[in-house]
Every structure is written in structure tokens, then in C-alpha cells.
């Protein structure tokens, strides 16, 4: 399989701040990768390097190209949504389509129109008259109509309510993703992306601290509400974390055999958010 993104020892410093301290990445085509990390961990810097927006040290190839040296060529195959929709407020919806048609060789106007027809966005409305959610939908319609090999999303649903956030990810999965494209997402709303990801990376203080396919993730962790009499035995099995819920101890285990977990108490499969929080707190990762 061809790698869509390949990085070795990616580093970026801003004065005395190390934003990226040697990041290795290997992302194959057709994956939906979540890059998850606390504030200031280096997520946006990683995306900026991948998009060729900043110079960096180390080796980085995106779609076989060097993003900093070959940005123009790369941008013909990449689409990007930044945290806040950056569409000009004066532009009308149909003018935004005209504009995209004019500048982007891979923009399919009919596709954007089909997508917009499913929303309540009036084609003649100006961006400034649209709600935040509608603006995000318009942005998504413009992006989804680009036949890109890589879609990069940096906190794409920031400021949107839960209904729009759901709709955004559902559209992405149902109307856009085709198992050939690669999607890279950073977000703090871990719970909401878990179901669409194929792979996950945790980034902490400029380093990748965890990397897994979602398939492996789902069988790897167990959270056990331990019976009080089993607590010492459970702690001896080296849990990733321990927390109290309604006066009971809940321990998170990595790689514990299902029978052993079941013998300790009530078992459930933790969410990505549970494991993320456990790892960040356990490793002192909240910055
Ligand atoms: N242009 C810049 N100048 C100086 N420092 C920067 C710049 N961009 C990022 N940094 C620093 O690099 C580190 C990583 O920042 P980055 O924006 O990549 O984090 P992030 O994980 O995207 O955070 P958030 O979730 O808060 O958006 C932070 O310490 C940040 O202050």
C-alpha cells in the first residue's frame, strides 16, 4: 500500500518552544486518522507542516511530495478546512461556487449543488446572512466537491451545535469518504469522531505518545469496576489508571485477558475519550 503521509523525525521550534519534537507518521491511503491531543500539543503545527504552510526539520512526504518545496502541486490534490470557516462575508453562495469553479481544476460544481440542495441554504444568500452551522455546511459543500486525495480537517466543527456536528461527520462519511481518499482530523471532541476513525494517534508535548488502528483499540482496553475485595489483586495487574465512581474503584487496563478482567468485577469497553483522559492524566500530559 502507498503511504499518503510519511514523516520521520519531524521537528518544529518557535524560538525556545518545541512545537514538534520528532514526530514519525505513516498514514496509508484510504484511512481516516484522528490526531488527538491537549491544547498546545502540536496538532495544528503537524497539519501546517503537512499542508506546506511552515518550514520544518526532518523528513516529510505527503502524496509523494515535499510539502514545503512542492506546495502548489500538492494543493491540487489536497483540500483543507480550518477551525473557523474563512469564507468572505460579502460573497453570495452561488458566487462562492463560481469562484471555486474558476480556481480549482478538480472542483465539481454539480456535486456541490447537489449537496447544497439538501440544506436550507439559499443560493442567493450572502455568507454574512448564514448561521454558523450553515456557513460550515457551505464550506463543506465546497470542499466535498473537490476531488482531493487528502482532506485535512483542523477542528472542523468548532462553534457548531451537536446537531450540525453530527450532520457534518455523517456527510463526511456518507457523501465524501470512498475508501480511496485519506482524511486527517484534529479535534477536541473525541467522542464524536470515534465512530468514523480507522486509526488514532495521541500527541502530547510535540511527540506521538500512542498510535493504534481503531480495530486494535477496541479489543485492547478494558475498564473494570472492581469489587472491593479484588482491589489489591487488580492493582497488582498494573492498570493504566484508577478513578473513583460512586465510591467504587474503576481501573483501566491495557491488554488484560477478558477472563481475568471479568474475574475482578464489572467490565466495559472504554471509549477513546476515556483512554485519552486516562493517559493524559496518568502521564501528566495536561499542559
Ligand atoms: N506561530 C507560532 N509562534 C510561536 N509559537 C507557536 C506558533 N504556533 C504554535 N506555537 C506553539 O507551538 C506549540 C504547539 O502549538 P499547536 O498550535 O500546534 O498546538 P495544538 O495542539 O494545535 O493546540 P490547540 O489544541 O490549543 O489548538 C504551542 O506551545 C504553541 O504555543
Task: Provide a brief overview of the structure.
By secondary structure, this protein is α/β, with parallel strands linked by helices. The protein is built from 11 helices and 13 strands.
Q: Could you name the CATH class of the largest domain? A: Alpha Beta
- Which sequence of SSEs, written as H and E, runs from N to C? EEEHEHEHHHEHEHEEHEHEEHEH
Choose one word for the global shape. Answer: globular
Which strand order do you get reading across the main beta sheet?
5-6-7-3-8-9
Strand content: 25-35%
Number of domains: 2
Distance between the termini: 36 Å
* Ligand list: adenosine-5'-triphosphate
Can you count the helices?
A: 11
Provide the residue-averaged pLDDT: 90
- Main structural class: alpha/beta
Largest sheet: 6 strands, mixed
The CATH architecture category of the largest domain equals 3-Layer(aba) Sandwich
The CATH homologous superfamily of the largest domain corresponds to P-loop containing nucleotide triphosphate hydrolases
Rg (C-alpha, Å):
21 Å
CATH fold-level topology of the largest domain: Rossmann fold
Helix content, binned percent: 25-40%
Unreliable residue runs: none
Query: Could you give the count of β-strands?
Result: 13
Amino acid at each position: 500500500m502507498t503511504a499518503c503521509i510519511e514523516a520521520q523525525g519531524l521537528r518544529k521550534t518557535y524560538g525556545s518552544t518545541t512545537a514538534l519534537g520528532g514526530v514519525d507518521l505513516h498514514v496509508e491511503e484510504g484511512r481516516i486518522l484522528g490526531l488527538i491531543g491537549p491544547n498546545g500539543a502540536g496538532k495544528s503545527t503537524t497539519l501546517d507542516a503537512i499542508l506546506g504552510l511552515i518550514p520544518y526539520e526532518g523528513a516529510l512526504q505527503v502524496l509523494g511530495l515535499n510539502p514545503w518545496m512542492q506546495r502548489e502541486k500538492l494543493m491540487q490534490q489536497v483540500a483543507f478546512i480550518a477551525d473557523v470557516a474563512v469564507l468572505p462575508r460579502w460573497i453570495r453562495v452561488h458566487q462562492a461556487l463560481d469562484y471555486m469553479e474558476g480556481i480549482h481544476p478538480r472542483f465539481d460544481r454539480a456535486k456541490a449543488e447537489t449537496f447544497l440542495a439538501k440544506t436550507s441554504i439559499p443560493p442567493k444568500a450572502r455568507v454574512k446572512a448564514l448561521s454558523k452551522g450553515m456557513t460550515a455546511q457551505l464550506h463543506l459543500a465546497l470542499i466535498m466537491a473537490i476531488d482531493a486525495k487528502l482532506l485535512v480537517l483542523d477542528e472542523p466543527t468548532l462553534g457548531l451545535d451537536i446537531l450540525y456536528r453530527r450532520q457534518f461527520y455523517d456527510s463526511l462519511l456518507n457523501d465524501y469518504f470512498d475508501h480511496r481518499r485519506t482524511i486527517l482530523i484534529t479535534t477536541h471532541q473525541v467522542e464524536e469522531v470515534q465512530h468514523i476513525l480507522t486509526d488514532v494517534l495521541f500527541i502530547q508535548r510535540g511527540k506521538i505518545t500512542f498510535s493504534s488502528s481503531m480495530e486494535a483499540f477496541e479489543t485492547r482496553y478494558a475498564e473494570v469496576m472492581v469489587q472491593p475485595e479484588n482491589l489489591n489483586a487488580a492493582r497488582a495487574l498494573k492498570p493504566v489508571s484508577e478513578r473513583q465512581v460512586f465510591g467504587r474503584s474503576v481501573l483501566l487496563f491495557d491488554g488484560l485477558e477478558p477472563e481475568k478482567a471479568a474475574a475482578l468485577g464489572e467490565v466495559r469497553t472504554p471509549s477513546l475519550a476515556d483512554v485519552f483522559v486516562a493517559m493524559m492524566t496518568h502521564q501528566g500530559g495536561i499542559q
